Structure formats: structure tokens, C-alpha cells
Amino acid sequence: MIKVENLHKTYGKLEVLKGIDYEIKEKEVVCVIGPSGSGKSTFLRCINLLEEVTDGAIYIENVKVNDPKTDINEIRTEVGMVFQQFNLFPHMSVLDNITMAPIQVRKVQKGKAESLAFELLDKVGLREKAHNYPEQLSGGQQQRVAIARALAMKPKVMLFDEPTSALDPEMVKEVLDVMKQLAFEGMTMVVVTHEMGFAREVADRVIFMDGGYIIEEGNPEDVFGSPQNDRTKAFLGKVL
Amino acid sequence: MDLLDLRWDIIWNYREMFLRGIWITIVLTVSGYAGGIILGVLIGLGETSKKKWLYWPSKLYVDLFRGTPMLVQILIIHLAVIPTIFGQSYGFMVSGILALLLNSAAYNAEIIRAGIQSIDKGQMEAARSLGLTHSKAMRKIILPQAFRRMIPPLGNEFIALLKDSSLVTVIAASDILYAAKIVAGAYNRFWEPYLVAAVLYLLLTYLVTKLVAYVERRFSNGYNPRRKREGRSLT
User: Fold this and answer.
1) Is the predicted ipTM greater than 0.90, yes or no?
2) Which residues of chain B does A153 touch, with a Cβ-Cβ cutoff of 8 Å?
3) Mutation site for B-interface testing, chosen from A88, A91, A142 by largest number of B Cβ within 10 Å
4) What distances in angstroms separate CA A133 from CA A91, B87, B124, one per listed residue?
């Protein structure tokens, strides 16, 4: 479903991604782990072109994403994204946060968009917060709204960029539970995370990145249970 | 009051001129400001643009109009620009409004640029990740948030422009200050006319301050920091 070929990304002289090749299949949950500065967030952000790709190619359902002829806005409607800092729109109610993109981009009628929004709010357990503003919610609640907002576009893939890193520890679980539910329902997901427990339990495949390369990848039992590369061993030794 | 032996009757004799002056000052300021907002939005957006052919002219415009005295700008526009382009003068009203408009556009542009750039870049990323085009993300997400932050400085700019509008007396615009000058010249008395002019400007700026405070309250609906702590749920 997502194919990445020889992906390079440089900021000025700094090369952050040094040639990434990877393929993600439909309904797969892929967790990307690795030390900070390893390029894992950049890799994720290249997929929906929030970062300009320096070299290489990314295909989503056989459409080349970084082709000037591709309508990137259309690709992005199929790719939901959840950010570390939630990035909810503070001037809109929770309900409007969720219905904005379906109404503005998909031209869904307001009533329909709202009933979908309530469905999604039920799913993340926040129906009663529909008319609150983001500032009135806790971090965990905001992140769950952000997930609902992304899901409202009915994306084929969901990208999570360290979705629990900005949360207080007691709120991490409520967000991970929503993500687990999504994975269980068969959503294709790419998750950059430091939550090794989540990766181990939910991921179909785990990617370990370091220094701009994919060092090791495989199913979670192998990567966590018997890592092959020394750098993976060193990293896991520190975080587990 | 006996000390200065003030003669308020001379003001009363020229009351119509002062009333007209108030009207002229208001028309000049409001028209100049309204045009200055429209042009300022365009230039402010230009200043935040990544396209060089939009950025550099906008930047140059702002530097030019902020870096030169308004008095000089008024004289150049009235005595040089308009006669050269149109072959004649259209009077102080046209020149005055144009000068105020061009000048305030530069200041408004800076306010608008700063307002836009003060919005966290995650907001634009979130909007784009949902499939919004850049301009739609600007209109629906960035500008509504930035606008709230722009209201106080835009209000200050309105007050500054109101006061600076008195500079148009140099091209014989019959505003408040002009009325005062006429009275001063006619009676050779200075306390009364200039004190009255000062009080009239003060009253106008006071009204504007109240208006800005009202607009600020009006647009903070549903997003009021003072209200946010109520209803916050603890998890």
C-alpha cells in the first residue's frame, strides 16, 4: 500500500534520511522505534509530504506522492495524521474540529458530517465534550479528539508521530487504547513511538532506525526478543 | 482661568469650522484606515510568502513607508505624485486619504505578518494533513486565530493614524488642526484654539479605544482565556 524507495532527506548540509526502502501492506501496523535524531519522525512526515523529499520515491497505492503532477491535497485526504502536540484548532469547538475538513474538503453536508463526528466521538469516548473547546480538555482527551479528527476523513492510512510523548503518564493509556482499537479494526497504521509495550503488543512489524537508516526490521518478537544488530541491542538495552 | 484670561467666545464664533474639521478628520482617518487594512492584508500576506516575487516587493514597500516621515510622504503625494500622474490636483481629500492609506498599509502589513507568524506552525501542518489547500488553511485556520491577536495592535494603529491625520493641514486640508490654526491666526490667540483641538483629538481617540475594546470582547467568544479554567475536566 505504501512503498518507499531510496528515500533521502537533507536539511542544508545535514542528511537526515540516507536511503530508506520499505513497503507497508494494507492493514499492517508498523511501529518505528529508535533514538531521537534517528530520522524516524522525518520518515513519517515524508509519507504525506509534510517534509519535502530530497531524493527517492514514495508511492501510496501506486501513486507517486512526490511527483509534481500528483495532487498532494488529494493524497493527504487519504492519509490521516496525528501529531505529538495534538495541533487541534483552538478557535473551534471539538465538534467543529472534527467536521471542518469533511465539510471543507470532501464537501460533506453539515448534518452528515456532524453525525459522523458524534460516531467518532463515541468511539474515542468523548461524546459529551463535543461542544467544548480544546483548551478545556486534558492532553489525553485532546489527542483522542485529534485521532477522531483524522478519522473523519475516512483515511486509508493513519500516521502517528509520537502520539503519547507530550502526555502525562496517566493519560498515555487512554490514547493507546484508542489506537489499539483502531489496529484491531484493521486500519493501516504507521506509528513512531517510544512505547515499546505498545509496539510489542500491537505492531505487525517493527522498524528500528538509527542515523538515517533502517537498521533492523521484522516482527516484534524477533526485533524485541532476539535483535540481530548491535545498535538495536544497545538501544533496546537502554529502553526496556 | 483668569490667569490666562481665556476667551472661549472666539471658539464659539468658529464652531462650524471646528465641526467641519471633526468631520474631515474622521473621513480622512476612517477611509485611510479602511484602505490601509485591505492593502495591508495583501502586503502582510506577501511578507509571509515563500515566493520571492511576492516577498521582496512587500518588504520593500514596508521599509519605504515606515522609514520615511509621513509629512514628507503627504507632500510628495500631493505635490508630486498626483500632479505628475494625472496632470492636475484633486484636492486635499484625495491626496490626504491616499497618503494615510499608503502609510497605514505599511504598519498594518507588519501587524498582519507578525500575527500570522505568531500562530504555531503545527496548525498549518494539521490543516494541510487533512487535505486543505494552503489558501484554505490560511482562511479557515490561520487567519481567524491570527486576527484575534491582531485586534489590539490594529486598534493602536487606528489611534496613531487618527493623530497623524493632523499632518494633512500642510496641504490645507480643513481638519481639526486647520480650524485651530485659522482661529489662532484670526485672533492672534493660541491657548484656546490649540487646547480645543487637543481635547477634540483626545475625545476621538477615547472613542476609538472603547470601540477597539468592544471588538476585542466580541471576537473572543468561545475562546476566552479568562473563561477557560471553568469546566476544565481533570483526568
Assistant:
1) yes
2) 130-131
3) A91
4) 7, 58, 19
